[in-house]
Amino acid sequence: MGADGLDIVFQTLYSELVQRSLDESFTSEFSSDGRFVAVEVKGKKYWYFDTPKPDGGGQDRRYVGPVDDLEITKRVEAFKDLKADMRGRRRIVSTLTREARLPRPPNTTGRVVEELARAGFFRLRGVLVGTVAYQCYSAVLGRHLDAVAMQTADADFAQFHEISVAVGDSLPPIMDVLRRIDPTFREIPSQADGRVSSQFISREQYKVEFLTPNRGSDDLAGKPVQMPALGGAGAFPLRFLDFLIRQPIRAVLLHGAGVPVLIPSPERYAVHKLIVGSRRIADREVTAKSAKDRLQARSIFEAMIANRQNADLAFAYTEAWGRGDAWKDAIRKSIESYDDEFKALLRKELAKGVIELGENPSDYDLNEEPSSDDTVGESAVPGSKK
């Protein structure tokens, strides 16, 4: 298993692609005859985009994002000067996938994410999760992650229910969006409530699923939730998901000319996979999923340790640890499932991060302060290249 780093040239190219892809998403989503307006809601300001209605009777208003999101506000202010550069971005994507060997998603996956992006899913603060999100972390972290853990035949998308209610905007009908990709897509009715669908599948068995955090009672388990912003789709409520999708980061899926997406921060993704991986260990039917969860977590941990991002890892780890006994037990069980060498490495490096945060590692079942002989970086990661 390796966590070898990308050449700085490729890391710079990827950063440029992120910037230009977000610029292009503004030029394609917002027409020149509209205008951005800042609207205050419950003491906080949000950007909306107004366009005249065809009949001249008022404005159509679309949600854009929080005013305090500097990346969005910068583009709002420079909107008239932004120009699409699709051909140039395609060249960058080709360079990153061919020369830097960064993962390109299968065509169906790329088209699904691209169509949902165009429809406004990420503008409405939705988050790409699951293995498709994992495929983005090699570029984000500047290191090659385990390729075996990238195989998937589905795409998962998540949104907080309160955001879906609050934005006052919606995707077009979700079946219209999916059938632009493949006309054989159909709903999978929920067994708990046949009126709501959170899963959609094509004749080729490609599945798209929408998820939302379950922070309520266990009565909600297994019952899809109506999501006003998802174009008629519901979302399946999951425990621990609120931890994963809080404070997502911007990234680009390397499909076509690059698809700008929101994904979980890598440290939250890794810790979340520890938790869900351990809970699947006891279920024989999902043993393979458990192994994949823990492999993805390990690969991200190794990359971030090599990047000396110990404090970032420790911040997510300590937050999850503080969520209660069920979370602690899940984390312990997953860590114990690894080989002795990686277990020791992970505990040592998390302890260093906890100390950087000014806390005591022993409060989190971690080693006491590492010895002065310990080194941080690529040499500490099994299989990493200097």
CA-based shape: globular
Order of helices and strands: HEEEHHHEHHEHHEEEEEHEEHHHHH
Low-confidence stretches: 369-386
Oligomer: single chain
Q: How many strands in all?
A: 12
Could you tell me the radius of gyration in angstroms? 21 Å
Measured between the Cα atoms of the first and last residue, the distance is 14 Å
Number of H- or I-type helical stretches: 14
The SS-based structural class is alpha+beta
Main beta-sheet annotation: 7 strands, mixed
The fraction of residues in strands falls at: 15-25%
The helix content, as a percent range, equals 40-55%
Mean pLDDT: 88
Explain the layout of strands and helices:
Layout: H1 8-29, E1 35-41, E2 44-52, E3 59-66, H2 70-77, H3 86-98, H4 107-119, E4 127-129, H5 130-134, H6 137-141, E5 154-158, H7 161-166, H8 174-179, E6 186-188, E7 199-201, E8 207-213, E9 225-226, E10 234-238, H9 241-245, E11 249-253, E12 259-263, H10 266-280, H11 287-306, H12 310-321, H13 325-336, H14 340-356
Parallel strand pairs: 5-8, 8-10
Antiparallel strand pairs: 1-2, 2-3, 4-5, 6-7, 7-8, 9-10, 11-12
Helix pairs in contact: 1-3, 10-11, 10-12, 10-13, 12-14
Question: Could you explain how this protein is built, in words?
Answer:
- The protein has 386 residues and is α+β, with helices and mostly antiparallel strands.
- It is 41% helix and 16% strand.
- The chain has 14 helices and twelve strands.
- The protein has helices at 8-29, 70-77, 86-98, 107-119, 130-134, 137-141, 161-166, 174-179, 241-245, 266-280, 287-306, 310-321, 325-336, 340-356; strands at residues 35-41, 44-52, 59-66, 127-129, 154-158, 186-188, 199-201, 207-213, 225-226, 234-238, 249-253, 259-263.
- Strand 11 (249-253) and strand 12 form a beta hairpin.
- Residues 369-386 have low confidence and may be disordered.
